[in-house]
Design a protein that fits this description.
Helix content is about 45%, strand content about 10%. The protein has about 500 residues and is α/β, with parallel strands linked by helices. The strands form two sheets. An eight-stranded parallel β-barrel has the order 3-4-5-6-7-8-9-10, surrounded by six helices. A two-stranded antiparallel sheet has the order 1-2. Strand 7, helix 12 and strand 8 form a beta-alpha-beta unit. Helix 3 packs across helix 4, helix 8 runs parallel beside helix 11 and helix 13 crosses helix 14. The longest helix has 21 residues. The radius of gyration is 24 Å and the shape is globular. The two termini are about 35 Å apart.
Amino acid sequence: MGSTSTPANGGPNAVDLSRPVPKPRAEWLAKRRDEATRTGNRNFSEMHFARQGIITEEMEYVGRREGLAPELVRDEVARGRMIIPANINHPELEPMCIGVASLCKINSNIGNSAITSNIDEELRKLHTSVHYGADTVMDLSTGGDIHLIREAILRHSPVPIGTVPIYEAVSRVKRIEDLTAEIMLEVIEEQAEQGVDYMTIHAGVLVQYLPLVARRITGIVSRGGAILAQWMAHHHKQNFLYERFEDIVKIFAKYDVSFSLGDGLRPGCVADASDEAQFAELRTLGELTKKAWESDVQVMIEGPGHIPLDKIKEQVDREKEMCYEAPFYTLGPLVTDIAPGYDHITSAIGAAMIGWHGAAMLCYVTPKEHLGLPNEKDVKDGIIAYKIAAHAADIARHRPGARDRDDALSFARYQFDWEKQFALSLDPETARAMHDETLPDDYYKAAAFCSMCGPKFCSMNYSSKVDEYNKQVHGLEKKDYSPLVDKLVSAK
C-alpha cells in the first residue's frame, strides 16, 4: 500500500493532499441534521424531500447546472425518473443528477486490484477522471486497504462516488461460501457512513435464474453476479441480498445512498444479448425498484454489457417498461467482440446509440477492458470516448443548447481561428499537439490552412471566396457565430 503523501513524480496530475478540499454542502447538511433532530425524521433521501414537495439546495443547484426549473427537478426526483446521488456524509460533493430529463452523464471506474495500484495512483485516476469530465466515479478496489483508499477518494471527490460493496465483503472472508448477509450489511453500513453516494447491489440474481445461463458462451461476467451465483450454487439457497433487501433500503434512507441495481446476469458477448436470463433479472430489478420507492429511496438500473446494434433500442424499451422509467445506467454496450485493446471504441459506438434512445448515464470502457487494470492514460482515453458518446446522444435527443459548442467550434474552424478551435475542443492539449506536430510555429496559428491540405488545397479557404461572391452578387450574408464562440471560450 502506498503512502498518502503527494506523489513524488509531480506533474500535472499530482494530487496535493495537504490542500483543503471545499465542502459546498456542509452548511446545507448541518441545517438538515438539525431539522431531523427536531422532527425525528431520519430519512435524508432526496426522493423523500421531493415527495414532500420540498426543493432542496441540491435540487436548486442541479437546476442551475442543467438549465432546468427546480420544480421540474423536484418532480422528476419524486417520480423516480431522476436521481441526485448525494450522501449526507459527502459534503465535498457538487450535486449532479442522472435522469432522462437531463444531459446524458458518464461514469469513470477506478480502483486497485489485489495485484497492483495504491492510494496515490487512485487519486491521480480520480483527478484525471474529474479533469476530463467524468460525472461520477466508481471505486472498484478489490485489494489492499480498501477502506483507506475509499476514504482518500471520497475526501477529494467533487463528484458522486459509487462502489460495489460485495468486493470489500469478499476481502473479509476466506472463501466465497463464507459470505453472509450480516457481513454484507456491515460493509454496506460502513460504506454508507463513510459517504458513498451510490452502491451496486446485485439483488436481482436469483437462484432460479442460474440454469438460464447454461447455454451462454461467456456465462456470468459480472463479478458481483458470479460471486453470488457461486454462493447460491454451493448453499442451494436464495440470494441473501434479495432476501434482506428491505434492511439495505433502511440503511440507504438513513444516509441518502442511491441504489444502482446491478445487472449480475448482463450478457458478456453479443451472442448472449437479450436472452432469458438477462430479462428475468431485469423483471426482478423492477420489483426491487418499487420496494425501494416505497421508502423514498432513489434507484437507477444497471444495464448491459455487450449488445449488437440492432438490439440496443430494445434494451431501453424493456428497461422503461419493467423498471418504471428509473434512470438507466449502462456499461457501453460493446457492439462487437473482436477488438481487444480498442473496446473504448467498440463500446462508445453502442453508448452513443443507447444514450440517444434514453439511457441516462454511460459507464465508460477503457482500452484495457478484458485485458488488464487501466492506468491513468487508459482512464483518460475511456473518458474522452464516452464524453463524445454522451454528447452525441444529447445532440440526437435535441437537448437545448447541446449543439452550441459544435457550432462555435465549427465557426472557429471556418475562420481559421486555431486558438479558439483548440480552446473549444474536448481535449485542447491533444488538439494543439496534433496541429503543432507538423506546423509548430506561431505563424501557422494564423494560417488559413493545415498540413492536411496545405495552402493550395484548403476547401474552406476557397469557400470563403464563394461567401464573398454570395454577399456581393446575391446579398446573402453568412451568419456570424462570433458572439457564441467568445461566450463559450470565456466560459471555459
